[in-house]
Write a structure and sequence with these properties.
Length: 283
């Protein structure tokens, strides 16, 4: 088996520079939690992805990558899908409802939907018919985190060790999350999400030592959150530039020392090591 698509690997982090559709470096039934924010198909200027295809092609694309995640997840694995509620660029579409339906068609079971109140109404670029009932646009300044699972919701695998506080549990099981978005300029990626999103998903839906996957690595936010909270992180990105941004962030924000590998090293397997220093604080 070739490992040339490994961009970086140690006992806690695996960055794969390859397509989500082509990589063979993730074993079926090996992932505990997927946390991702896929391309939204709203013409964001990525380095290596066309974010302006037809909506039908976008739905086909979504079904393909979500099917890969379904294969990689354990039977009690969870899937946190950060997507828009809807969109109006290129025509009004019910993105949240449509992608949830596609996920259920693949075989995912639906658990719940968390509404992320980003509070950023300033992003809007059009109101439709201004001050007129002719054709106004209604735009909700929220995004969704659709929570799905593979076969069973009750988690039976893993360390059985949770690191969530009483207050966090009470606050985060309320399905309305309010926190700010992330700065594109600060992170160096056109569509970053804030670390608070994967941090909450990791602590609420996985145990310490679990494997957390982001099939659209981007700036590496999910892997940073996983590393800071004693989870093993796997990220996939076809663009080596974004792989490097992600690696740099894990080193800077997580304090991870660099450990490079040779291309003939084996894939990440087994239970990850939990650092003795305990959970690192974010923020």
């Amino acid at each position: 088996m070739s490992h040339k698509e490994f961009f970086f690997k140690n006992d806690e982090v695996l960055i794969i520079n390859d397509s989500v559709f082509h990589t063979r470096q993730i074993k079926p039934d090996s992932v505990d939690l997927v946390v991702t924010s896929p391309p939204y198909n709203v013409d964001i200027k990525y380095n290596s992805h066309d974010d302006q295809t037809s909506y039908e092609d976008y739905k086909i694309f979504s079904e393909k990558w979500m099917s890969c995640c379904y294969t990689w997840l354990k039977d009690d694995g969870r899937f946190c899908l950060n997507i828009p509620l809807d969109k109006n660029k290129g025509g009004q579409q019910s993105v949240g409802a449509d992608l949830t339906t596609i996920a259920k068609k693949i075989g995912f079971q639906y658990h719940s939907t968390i509404v992320w109140n980003e509070g950023n109404i300033s992003r809007r670029t059009a109101w439709g018919s201004w001050l007129s009932a002719s054709a106004p646009y209604v735009i909700a300044p929220v995004e969704l985190i659709v929570v799905l699972y593979k076969k069973t919701w009750k988690k039976t695998s893993g360390s059985k060790e949770s690191d969530i506080s009483k207050q966090e549990f009470m606050d985060w099981t309320n399905g309305l999350w309010t926190f700010n978005g992330e700065s594109k300029k600060k992170i160096g990626h056109p569509a970053p999400f804030p670390i608070e999103l994967p941090r909450r998903c990791c602590k609420l839906f996985s145990y310490t030592g679990d494997t957390v996957l982001d099939p659209f690595l981007g700036s590496g936010t999910t892997l940073v959150a996983a590393y800071l909270n004693n989870r093993k992180g796997i990220g996939i990105d076809i663009d080596p530039h974004y792989c490097q941004i992600a690696l740099d962030r894990i080193k800077k924000e997580g304090g991870m020392g660099e450990t490079r590998i040779s291309h003939d090293a084996p894939p990440v397997e087994g239970k990850p090591k939990v650092r003795k220093t305990g959970v690192r604080k974010t923020g």
